[in-house]
Amino acid sequence: MKPFLTALLFLLGFKAIAQDSKLTEHYIKKNSIYAELLGNGGVYSINYDRVFQLSKQVKIVPRVGFSTLEDVLIFPLEANLLLSKSSTSKNFFETGIGLTILKPLNGFSGQLLTINGYDYNFNNRAVNTPVILRAGFRHQKPTGGFMYRTGALLFTGDETLLTIGIGLGYTF
């Protein structure tokens, strides 16, 4: 009877440890919605991203956004890497690569659209996609709530431009 009780207590101990790690993982907030000014979406963009933890110090964060300006739809897409000291850190070095898809609507009459000093030349193309490199800082608590990010962005394409982006939002 003693060996049976010992084995049972041993197995219940493993079950308790497994449940504890599931609870901890469950409460880490991974989704963010935020507005970004002067970033990938031009003057502004509304964005959603989700955190995927690769290790204790490294997370990957895909992002999609939306904006509109002068009868042009703007869709910033980005994949960022967050680097921190630990899995519970709230401050990150953020670096990434992305592109911005621009789709002129029927009301757009020009061949050129200038946003934040970058000239998007459509030349009868339906979509214009400059590649954007990012390096910056991100503050996002594992428990959720207010988040912000700022970074330097290098736009490459028909021309090259260095600018900044500032994002404010909420993690849930």
Strand segment tally: 11
Strand content: over 45%
Separation of the first and last Cα atoms:
49 Å
Secondary structure class reads mainly beta
- Determine the number of helices (DSSP H or I, runs of at least 4 residues): 1
Percent of residues in helices: 10-25%
Give helix and strand order, one letter per element, not per position. Answer: HEEEEEEEEEEE
Largest sheet: 8 strands, antiparallel, barrel
What is the residue-mean pLDDT, rounded to a whole number?
A: 85
* Poorly predicted tracts of residues: 15-26
Shape: elongated
Strand arrangement across the biggest beta sheet:
1-2-4-5-6-9-10-11
Structural Rg: 22 Å
Describe what you observe in this structure.
By secondary structure, the protein is mainly β. It is 15% helix and 56% strand. It has one helix and eleven strands. The chain has one helix spanning 2-26; strands at 31-37, 44-50, 52-53, 58-69, 72-83, 91-104, 112-115, 118-121, 131-140, 145-156, 160-171. It has an eight-stranded antiparallel beta barrel. The chain has a two-stranded antiparallel sheet with strand order 7-8. The N and C termini lie far apart (49 Å).
Question: What attributes characterize this protein structure?
Answer:
172 residues, mainly beta, eight-stranded antiparallel barrel, 1 helix, 11 strands, elongated
List the helices and strands and how they pair.
Blueprint: H1 2-26, E1 31-37, E2 44-50, E3 52-53, E4 58-69, E5 72-83, E6 91-104, E7 112-115, E8 118-121, E9 131-140, E10 145-156, E11 160-171
Antiparallel strand pairs: 1-2, 1-11, 2-4, 3-4, 4-5, 5-6, 6-9, 7-8, 9-10, 10-11
